[in-house]
Design goal:
The chain has 303 residues and is of the alpha+beta class. The chain is 43% helix and 23% strand.
């Protein structure tokens, strides 16, 4: 057992494949520069948690429980968290804190774990709490960078994307991802879901090819089409639609909601020369531009 360990893990942004990834379709997700930090140190007695920035401390608690059940370790430690970003943005703080907690426990108890093992325990943590989920946000926190991902981690493929010119806008509304996913399944005819998700899968596959070529214009067109399909499903909002439209009219290659919808964030793929103009356009319709960089490093040991 070590005296103290500090670990950090990144947040995420869904680039393409939102919702469809829950139904055995692929998505493309990128890790972002905003990180969640977890420090663990010895403390006599039971387990203590200090996580004032975490929106749901259950992700820390459940990650501890999952780790303890697998590796049969004891108590006698305290976990403290801090975050580079607000949990209200929908950038995956819950997944990031779960993954950082798991790696910190692994190092603290000197229990070697591969990245795949960390992903598996992180995904189990999410399922234990939410009962549903694809695991793409867990994969982003573990592996970082930009990845092509298939439901449950059946495929986790790092993409060689060195540059990703994104602007991120927050709608001002905090969404409940698990509720959005469940409501979509309950309220949408199965045939409609299948048809739209099949179309989204085709978009993701085409976008993967264009991203690897650095073809931002074509990738942006595919993002627009992805957003149109999500709007057809009813998961976008008037604010998100206006932010995406404003970004496009200001010169973005493409724009779409990012994640479950109902609020949270949108993303715009932009030319570097027109970035500030696009940011101002998003702000004029009520969005808040979030300064994060995509393609960030995955979970890592800090000390």
């Amino acid at each position: 057992m070590k005296e103290q360990v500090e670990v950090s893990a990144p947040g995420k942004l869904m680039l393409l494949g939102d919702h469809a990834v829950v139904y055995n379709r692929p998505c493309i997700v990128t890790a972002v520069s905003a990180r969640v930090w977890v420090m663990i140190e010895k403390k006599p007695g039971h387990v203590a948690i200090e996580a004032p920035q975490v929106k749901n401390v259950r992700f820390v608690e459940e990650a501890i429980s999952v780790f303890k059940r697998k590796y049969r370790v004891g108590d006698g430690f305290i976990i403290k968290t801090k975050s580079d970003f607000s949990c209200r943005y929908g950038l995956g703080s819950s997944s990031a804190v779960a993954i950082a907690t798991l790696l910190s426990l692994s190092r603290f108890f000197k229990q070697a774990m591969s990245l795949r093992e960390i992903f598996n325990l992180g995904y189990q943590t999410t399922l234990n709490i939410q009962g549903i989920g694809s695991g793409f946000d867990i994969a982003a926190a573990v592996y970082g960078k930009t990845i092509y991902f298939l439901t449950g981690g059946k495929v986790i493929e790092p993409l060689g994307v060195s540059h990703l010119p994104l602007v991120v806008g927050y709608s001002g509304v905090k969404a409940d991802t698990a509720t959005m996913v469940k409501n979509l399944r309950l309220n949408t005819p199965h045939g409609k879901l299948t048809a739209i998700f099949d179309s989204i899968q085709e978009i993701v596959e085409r976008a993967k090819t264009e991203l690897l070529k650095g073809n931002w214009e074509k990738t942006g067109e595919l993002m627009n089409e992805n957003h149109r399909l999500l709007s057809e499903l009813g998961v976008s909002t008037n604010r998100l639609d206006k932010m995406c439209q404003a970004a496009r009219e200001a010169g973005a290659y493409g724009a779409k909601l990012s994640g479950a919808g109902g609020g949270d964030c949108m993303i715009a793929l932009v030319p570097e020369v027109g970035r500030e103009k696009i940011e101002r356009a998003i702000e004029r319709v009520g969005g808040v531009v979030i300064k994060v960089s995509p393609n960030a490093e995955g979970v890592r040991i800090e000390s």
